[in-house]
Amino acid sequence: MKPLAYDLDYENWKEWMKEQNQPEFRARQVMDWLYIKRVVSFQEMTNLPKVLRQTLEETFHLKSLRIIARQVSQDGTVKFLFGLYDQHAIETVLMRHDYGISVCVTTQVGCRMGCTFCASTLVGLKRNLSSGEIVAQVLMAQKYLDQSDERVKSVVVMGSGEPFENYGPTMRFVRMINHPRGLNIGQRHITVSTSGVVPNIYRFADEDWQVRLAISLHAPNQELRSKLMPVSRKYPLADLMDACRYYLEKTGRRITFEYALIGGKNDQKENAHELGKLLQDMNCLVNLIPVNYVPERNYKRTLRSQIFDFKRILDSYHVNSTIRREHGHDIDAACGQLRAKYGQ
């Protein structure tokens, strides 16, 4: 299998051109063709010498993803099912907001975290994606938008998989889409989510950038969280909170806590009070998410009136919160619904 061209960043391309006895500006030209013009073959790179184009074609490949299916929601959300080179499949979601278009990318084929409300984990973990395979998801979404002269403004790393279990490729992906010769997406327009892999929260805090962090919390105490999210058995809630405080002290940036409200499980008034006490001294935003339907789970949605009651209690502790606007629920593209259905 030839390496994927999108796995190389600008510095890699400069080094590769040097090895080919090519001038450095050829690296800039290749990046321009890949990320600005978004070509699908090396032969389209017409300002490169024919011999170099042939060498590129013999050395790398560009077609890392193929569209198996594309669904468009009534609200404009688009869900892509992409086939990979090894017959696995992943899902990527394009969402339209008042502030612009965002893309939710996947970092692993499947997931091993075992969160009980999420479809992504039902088949377990098959493999990690490379940085280029993650980059290609954004590029494919951008190519779709090119038809209407629209642009991806923000990226959320919240699709299938646990990004902090595929830390190196995920961080490389972030730097590649942020690079001015890449897609040039601002760091503050990129959010990475984790279910609570504590050691890599510390690593993320030490990265020299403005990329945002989101924590999938979903419970206000260790006992309940360990039932809903097995990751909490390895990385207890107290350790997770310590890591979050380190992040806040080190970066000065606000953390978003994702909280899926599950009827009768974690949505009671006492849960709201406990969550308010847990977070009242932290610079954070709680994103309240009505749990989404997954056929294999028997979870019920919290009543809308009860969601507002929950929010009012958090307000009383001066904890900022918002109720997430749903995207793509009718095409199983909402939070917790992504899975690789192809071939299963």
TrEMBL record:
- Family matches, as CDD domains: Radical_SAM
**How is the cofactor bound, as the UniProt entry phrases it?**
Binds 1 [4Fe-4S] cluster. The cluster is coordinated with 3 cysteines and an exchangeable S-adenosyl-L-methionine.
For the biological process aspect of GO, one term held by this record is: tRNA methylation
Per the Swiss-Prot or TrEMBL record, the active site comprises E91 (proton acceptor), C335 (s-methylcysteine intermediate)
Quick one: which residues bind S-adenosyl-L-methionine?
A: G161, E162, S193, S216, L217, H218, N292
Query: What is the E.C. number?
Result: 2.1.1.192
Q: What compartments host this protein? A: Cytoplasm
Keyword annotations for this protein, in alphabetical order, are: 4Fe-4S, Cytoplasm, Disulfide bond, Iron, Iron-sulfur, Metal-binding, Methyltransferase, rRNA processing, S-adenosyl-L-methionine, Transferase, tRNA processing
Binding locations of [4Fe-4S] cluster? C111, C115, C118
Under the heading PROSITE patterns, the entry gives: RADICAL_SAM
Q: Which co-factor is required?
A: [4Fe-4S] cluster
Q: Which GO terms describe its cellular component?
A: cytoplasm
Q: What's the catalysed reaction? A: adenosine(2503) in 23S rRNA + 2 reduced [2Fe-2S]-[ferredoxin] + 2 S-adenosyl-L-methionine = 2-methyladenosine(2503) in 23S rRNA + 5'-deoxyadenosine + L-methionine + 2 oxidized [2Fe-2S]-[ferredoxin] + S-adenosyl-L-homocysteine; adenosine(37) in tRNA + 2 reduced [2Fe-2S]-[ferredoxin] + 2 S-adenosyl-L-methionine = 2-methyladenosine(37) in tRNA + 5'-deoxyadenosine + L-methionine + 2 oxidized [2Fe-2S]-[ferredoxin] + S-adenosyl-L-homocysteine
Q: What class of enzyme is it?
A: transferase
Radical SAM core domain: residues covered: 97-330
InterPro entries per the record? Aldolase_TIM, Methyltransferase_A, RlmN_N, RNA_MTrfase_RlmN, rRNA_lsu_MTrfase_RlmN/Cfr, rSAM, rSAM_sf
What GO terms are given for molecular function? 4 iron, 4 sulfur cluster binding; metal ion binding; rRNA (adenine(2503)-C2-)-methyltransferase activity; rRNA binding; tRNA (adenine(37)-C2)-methyltransferase activity; tRNA binding
Q: What's in the misc comment field?
A: Reaction proceeds by a ping-pong mechanism involving intermediate methylation of a conserved cysteine residue.
Q: What does this protein do?
A: Specifically methylates position 2 of adenine 2503 in 23S rRNA and position 2 of adenine 37 in tRNAs.
Q: Which NCBIfam families match?
A: rRNA_mod_RlmN
Family, per the entry? Belongs to the radical SAM superfamily. RlmN family.
Q: What is this protein called?
A: Probable dual-specificity RNA methyltransferase RlmN
Query: What gene is behind this protein?
Result: rlmN
